[in-house]
């Protein structure tokens, strides 16, 4: 079964346009990700969610990134998701440290044994390491 990462820019292009002036560095997007496998898209938002690939409320993905193939059956994936679900709830969500990208990374590691692209996972640190990011940190 093919495993793909759906990448969405929650800023819809504004991060790319405004980040150089605001942050002093280029940020290409405010990333949300979902993992597509077995005909479903799995993502973290107020708990573990599932939807039709590209048919979630995030719209069409900006990019679809092939992550590899898995031989893990859907039933085993469901067991894994149930096992990790206490760590991915509305109460555990943290914009900077525990978000949809961390979920996608963990599921991808389970399915294909590798991480999602590092530029997606490092985005919060990239922003927080700017002067504006440091000023915003207490509010986030």
From TrEMBL:
Which superkingdom is the protein from? Eukaryota
- Which GO terms of the molecular function aspect are on file? peptidase activity
- Where the record annotates domain PPPDE, the positions are 1-140
User: Which keywords describe this protein according to UniProt?
Assistant: Hydrolase, Protease
One GO BP annotation here? protein modification by small protein removal
Among InterPro entries, the record links this protein to: PPPDE_dom (IPR008580), PPPDE_sf (IPR042266)
Which residues span the membrane? none
The record's annotation in Pfam families points to: Peptidase_C97
**Membership in a protein family:** Belongs to the DeSI family.
Identify this protein by name.
PPPDE domain-containing protein
Q: Which organism is it from?
A: Micromonas commoda (strain RCC299 / NOUM17 / CCMP2709) (Picoplanktonic green alga)
């Amino acid at each position: 079964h093919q495993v793909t990462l759906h990448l969405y820019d929650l800023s819809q292009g504004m991060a790319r346009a405004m980040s150089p002036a605001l942050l002093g560095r280029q940020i290409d997007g405010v990333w949300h990700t979902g993992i597509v496998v077995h005909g479903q898209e799995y993502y973290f938002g107020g708990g573990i969610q599932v939807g039709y690939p590209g048919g979630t409320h995030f719209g069409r993905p900006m990019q679809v990134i092939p992550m590899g193939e898995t031989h893990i059956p859907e039933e085993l994936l469901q067991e894994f998701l149930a096992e990790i679900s206490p760590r991915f709830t509305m109460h555990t969500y943290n914009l900077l440290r525990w978000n949809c990208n961390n979920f996608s990374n963990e599921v991808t590691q389970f399915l294909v044994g590798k991480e999602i692209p590092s530029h997606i996972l490092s985005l919060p640190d990239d922003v927080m390491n700017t002067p504006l990011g440091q000023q915003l940190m207490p509010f986030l």
